[in-house]
Amino acid sequence: MDRFTNKVVIVTGAASGIGKASAQRMAAEGGTVACMDIQQKALHDAVKEINADSATTGSASAYLCDIGNPQAITDAVAAVINDHKKLNALCNIAGILKLQNTLEVNLEDWNQIIAVNLTGTFLMCQTALPHLINTKGSIVNMASTAALGSHPWTAAYAASKGGILSMTKTFSIEFGKQGINANSLSPASVKTPMSSNAKLPEGADYDLLKKVLPFNGLVRPASDVASLVAFLASDDAVHINGVDVRIDGGMMT
Fold it and tell me: Looking at 157, 212, 225, 228, which residue is catalytic?
């Protein structure tokens, strides 16, 4: 498939996990992918790997960006537009996770998670929307099953993802008549560095943990999530708007 030929796509969190897998998928389909992340070396390594892949018919380029920093967002999006002159899709994958007992969540951790996951996603959308309106483009935001059901130890994370869920629906109706389609994804636990590095809080109940894992194992970032990110960012999904798609193996059914 070459659904992204002559299309410019921004992917945040592109240095690893779902973001990297999504960037790989869209570059393989001919896209010009602007890869954003705060991890400079990992970002450049990911871009080098994508461009060296024989399956890549498009291209990837690196843009260092901390989405918790409003000025960094402004500068990074401006750089993409300066380099490529347009924007066809925005895929907000970047995020952070910290598992904590609710009674032990401090304001600093709460503010950081909200600032990166929710405010950062909002500012990326707000900054990119004028350019996306010009191309009747797409927004794909990463929510989580934590926004939909009872996930222990995720008060701040779940709140941030619940905000993304509601915010995406707002974009879909507010800008739908201008050609924008905005959708979100809600994966269950995904096999990524973020989830692998998340430490359970002291005294965590493992029976609770089992209840928030997919029946058939951890979700795979490339085949399970990136393929859906690419679909929702493409013209194939032009009439899908304001939808949240669960990727959880039926866990919450």
Answer: 157
Residue 212 tokens read as 């928030």
Give 8-240's CATH code, choosing from 3.40.50.720, 3.50.50.60, 3.40.630.10, 3.40.50.410: 3.40.50.720
> How far apart (Å, rounded) are the C-alpha atoms in residues 21 and 13?
10
Distance in angstroms (rounded) separating the CA atoms of residues 89 and 9: 5
Residue type, 192: T
Six-digit token pair at 87? Answer: 């924007």
Phi then psi for 131, rounded to 5 degrees? -75, -35
Tell me the per-residue pLDDT of 190-249, one tens digit each, with 9 for 90 and over.
555 555 555 666 766 655 655 555 555 556 655 679 999 999 999 999 999 999 999 887
CA pair distance 21, 164, nearest whole angstrom: 21
> Among 76, 72, 85, 70, which residue's Cα sits nearest to residue 32?
85
For 90, residues 6+ apart whose C-beta sits below 8 A from its C-beta are 9, 10, 124, 125, 128, 132, 137, 138, 139, 140
pTM above 0.85, yes or no: yes
**Longest CA–CA separation in the chain, Å:** 52
For the chain, the structural domain boundaries read: 8-240
Q: What are the strands, taking DSSP E only, across the chain? A: 8-12, 32-37, 59-64, 89-92, 138-142, 181-187, 244-247
Render pLDDT for 21-32 as a digit per residue (tens, 0 to 9).
999 999 999 999
206 labelled catalytic? no
Is residue 26 within 8 Å of residue 2, measured between CB atoms?
A: no
